[in-house]
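note to self — DONT lose this again. spent like an hour looking for the file last time. sequence + predicted structure for the chain T wanted, 63 res
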Amino acid sequence: MRVVFDVTRIRTAYPALADGYAYLDGAAGTQVPAAVIEAIANAYREGLGNVGGAFPASDRSRT
């Protein structure tokens, strides 16, 4: 079985790699794909609250 790994496609999913470097210095330099960045940004835009609270932001925190 031959596995094809498209490095260019993978690199384009990670905006922080656009400068040509791979940051492999542990958790402080962990790079994430654009989809993760957008998901986190959306969570902040919509607002989060403590789980178990009596408001919509609490409900969003569970998902």
